[in-house]
Amino acid sequence: SSCISGNIQGATIVDALDTLYIMEMKEEFKEAKEWVEKNLDFNVNAEISVFEVNIRFVGGLLSAYYLSGEEIFRKKAVELGEKLLPAFNTPTGIPWALLNIKSGIGRNWPWASGGSSILAEFGTLHLEFIHLSHLSGNPVFAEKVMNIRKVLNRLDKPEGLYPNYLNPSSGQWGQHHVSIGGLGDSFYEYLLKAWLMSDKTDEEGKKMYYDAVQAIETHLIRKSSGGLTYIAEWKGGLLEHKMGHLTCFAGGMFALGADGAPNDKTGHHIELGAEIARTCHESYDRTSMKLGPEAFRFDGGVEAIATRQNEKYYILRPEVIETYMYMWRLTHDPKYRQWGWEAVEALEKHCRVDGGYSGIRDVYNSQESHDDVQQSFFLSETLKYLYLLFSEDDLLPFEHWVFNTEAHPLPVLHKDDRNKEENQK
Ligand code: DMJ
């Protein structure tokens, strides 16, 4: 039919490159590199998600380049970055969610509030695009993401919060829904990490991050009667007492940002991270499989339990293990390794299938029903964060590396090196 459109092939291979490298699986890395050389093709008639392609493909290629120094990965990353640029052709420069990479025509998800772009999508390009400019010598990538910040900073924010929806034509917010999970999550992560990746020179990113966390604490973070701290969702001023599995990444984010927290709040941010880690561990521990549900609630007499059938699945997501890894590195409390090991055992017991690992339809059912999908982020994130949790701190140390939202490590752009490069020009 006329609407046949393909996809970029190879997500699992590209997402797994850096994990193979870090785990010293040299033969497999070489095979994957050969696949990239021969088969990774962006000249396809495909309508892609700008966000997903950026975090998995651009991020994966950038990390593979920085770790291995192999030119092919740099070349492919920049080539793909150029393919994404037409997404920014909107009245405000806030990019479209979807882009046909052959025609360059963009549009938004039909379900998104009044034609809006999504905060967690256009807000999760920054790290990769700064590196694309750095590696290509072409400032256009950095200009595109700096303009997104400019648009955001011109807008009034309800209660200091960032709604998940922003219309790229009018430059106005859509529905006033706020989430630290799906549709919002990695926007906040990238504010903090942009500052860290800039060797703490990006003061704008720093301010936006700590201001946002302040508003999140005031309006979204609550404690259950059983003493579990959780992050709720905000809908036009009303709280929905639900926390997504995706939201569990925030424990690690708060801990990672603790060091730079203003007003003597370092200890407080570490504590917040520890409390979110504990709550998310409870969401795992209160299932029969010891793997957490997609979303859990704190209402109607339950705490940290999924109540709706369509929220009981687990698709090999990394966020809880990611938070254990950050908490381990930043506190060395052995409980985080214990909790990580519980997850390893549960994955082996319930998700291992012939040829790989599978998601689970209902983690409260002791009989597993597999969904027969191995998400590419299982290799890029879940296994990488587990590996790092049980490695020494000098493997990808936080002083030199930040992880993109798909767990692809990107080097900190140190002030000294940048000065040297400037002087060489
Ligand atoms: C990944 O693609 C990324 O971690 C993203 O930020 C959220 N969703 C998946 C993992 O759950």
UniProtKB/TrEMBL annotation:
One of its GO terms (biological process) is carbohydrate metabolic process. Gene3D superfamilies: 1.50.10.10. GO terms for cellular component: endoplasmic reticulum; extracellular exosome; Golgi membrane. Pathway: Protein modification; protein glycosylation. It comes from the Eukaryota. It is a single-pass type II membrane protein. The active site is at E52, D185, E294, E319. It catalyses: N(4)-(alpha-D-Man-(1->2)-alpha-D-Man-(1->2)-alpha-D-Man-(1->3)-[alpha-D-Man-(1->2)-alpha-D-Man-(1->3)-[alpha-D-Man-(1->2)-alpha-D-Man-(1->6)]-alpha-D-Man-(1->6)]-beta-D-Man-(1->4)-beta-D-GlcNAc-(1->4)-beta-D-GlcNAc)-L-asparaginyl-[protein] (N-glucan mannose isomer 9A1,2,3B1,2,3) + 4 H2O = N(4)-(alpha-D-Man-(1->3)-[alpha-D-Man-(1->3)-[alpha-D-Man-(1->6)]-alpha-D-Man-(1->6)]-beta-D-Man-(1->4)-beta-D-GlcNAc-(1->4)-beta-D-GlcNAc)-L-asparaginyl-[protein] (N-glucan mannose isomer 5A1,2) + 4 beta-D-mannose; N(4)-(alpha-D-Man-(1->2)-alpha-D-Man-(1->2)-alpha-D-Man-(1->3)-[alpha-D-Man-(1->3)-[alpha-D-Man-(1->2)-alpha-D-Man-(1->6)]-alpha-D-Man-(1->6)]-beta-D-Man-(1->4)-beta-D-GlcNAc-(1->4)-beta-D-GlcNAc)-L-asparaginyl-[protein] (N-glucan mannose isomer 8A1,2,3B1,3) + 3 H2O = N(4)-(alpha-D-Man-(1->3)-[alpha-D-Man-(1->3)-[alpha-D-Man-(1->6)]-alpha-D-Man-(1->6)]-beta-D-Man-(1->4)-beta-D-GlcNAc-(1->4)-beta-D-GlcNAc)-L-asparaginyl-[protein] (N-glucan mannose isomer 5A1,2) + 3 beta-D-mannose. This is alpha-1,2-Mannosidase. It comes from Aramus guarauna (Limpkin).
